[in-house]
From TrEMBL:
It is an enzyme of class 2 (transferase). Signal peptide: none annotated. It comes from the Bacteria. This is DNA polymerase III subunit gamma/tau. The gene is dnaX. SMART domains: AAA. Belongs to the DnaX/STICHEL family. Residues 37-188 form the AAA+ ATPase domain.
Length: 363
């Protein structure tokens, strides 16, 4: 099976296909339906949460010849041209590589002219926080007195780096990370569409590793599909992505419960030698210990801090937590966080973990 960009192939083509950002979609649909589209929007949120995708859908909805309750029809010539990337009036700018004042000056000059075919000229500026101070000042003047045919959509992963003068002239929407269940739902739909096969636990493993980023999850799935002949199993995910499974984390935790530094070190090195990502396993271990500690504070926190775990996995975690005192878990976490920081300062990534284990269980 070829390694295809699944996040592009299965990118939503309409508002009804968007998951996880319903608060954004509904507000914008209402604005389009009421003819009250703002001249500038700011989409802020983590990477891979759909900011650029929804920006393109807004461009489509604003220019659709026959919108349906504020949503693009997907059938008119304008919708088709935008979907196929042929619309000259839709301009996407990557501020990470086009961040200077010259690029913004060119934009100011171009925006004065009327659209070639559409109702609105739409400028989508990705990673907008990376614009220079001079570029922001030039953009500010355009935002203060925008032409009636202009629509700006700024996307950023760092809204705190955006100047207050810009923030005061845009309508802001904050994008949320996707829940594990939302990501699994989308991956399951992709597997079905690709006529592939996947274990549910394998998809949950990918979803958990993506940390709320749907695009990252789709990219990971594409990697596994390309190397596993269309069958996604936990073993394939571990092998291709080097992701630590819950079983591997639990095995290390069992060694910690026995205060057996040797066994923990052997398990960590075995994982590394088999091609696993030791940084990823250590991060998963820290996260697991944190959840165990919070469970000891109040078992009712489980629904909030670990929704990705099945009932069986939660039961195992609770059983393991009984082998530790709360203060012991806190001490381990403090030691491991120091080790995680030290990992960035050495070429032997596993060494700080080994030293931390020897320090914790020194006789």
């Amino acid at each position: 099976m070829p390694n295809i960009a699944l996040y592009r192939k299965y990118r939503p083509s309409g508002f009804d296909e968007v998951i996880g950002q319903e608060h954004v979609v509904q507000t914008i649909q209402n604005a389009v339906a009421d003819g009250a589209i703002a001249h500038a929007y700011l989409f802020a949120g983590p990477r891979g949460t759909g900011k650029t995708t929804i920006a393109r859908l807004v461009a489509k909805a604003a220019n659709c010849l026959h919108p349906v309750k504020g949503a693009p029809c997907g059938k008119c010539q304008n919708c088709i041209d935008i979907s196929e990337g042929r619309a000259m009036d839709i301009v996407e700018i990557d501020a990470a590589s086009n961040r200077g004042i010259d690029e913004i000056r060119e934009l100011k000059e171009a925006i004065r002219s009327t659209p070639l075919a559409l109702k609105y000229k739409v400028y989508i500026i990705d990673e907008a926080h990376q614009l220079t101070k001079e570029a922001f000042n030039a953009l500010l003047k355009t935002l203060e007195e925008p032409p009636a045919h202009a629509l700006f959509i700024l996307a950023t992963t760092s809204a705190d780096k955006m100047p207050a003068t810009i923030l005061s002239r845009v309508q802001r929407f904050d994008f949320k990370k996707f829940s594990l269940e939302q990501i699994v739902q989308k991956l399951t739909a992709i597997i079905k569409a690709e006529k592939a096969k996947a274990d549910n636990e394998a998809l949950r493993l990918i979803a958990h590793a993506a940390q709320g980023g749907l695009r990252d999850a789709e990219s990971m799935l594409a990697q596994v599909l390309a190397h596993s002949q269309g069958v996604v199993t936990e073993k394939a995910v571990h092998s291709v992505l080097g992701i630590a499974g819950l079983q591997q984390v639990c095995d290390v935790v069992d060694a910690l419960a026995k205060q057996d530094a040797k066994e923990a070190i052997v398990r960590l090195n075995t994982f590394k030698n088999e091609g696993g990502n030791i940084e990823e396993l250590f991060a998963s271990l820290i996260d697991y210990l944190r959840k165990m500690m919070l469970l000891k504070v109040d078992p009712k926190l489980s629904d909030v801090i670990m929704p990705e775990l099945t009932k069986e996995q939660l039961s195992r975690m609770m059983a393991q937590s009984e082998k530790f005192k709360q203060e012991d878990l806190a001490r381990m976490l403090e030691t491991f966080i120091e080790a995680e920081d030290a990992m960035r300062k050495t070429s032997i990534r596993i060494l700080p973990i080994e030293l931390a284990l020897l320090k914790l269980f020194a006789k």
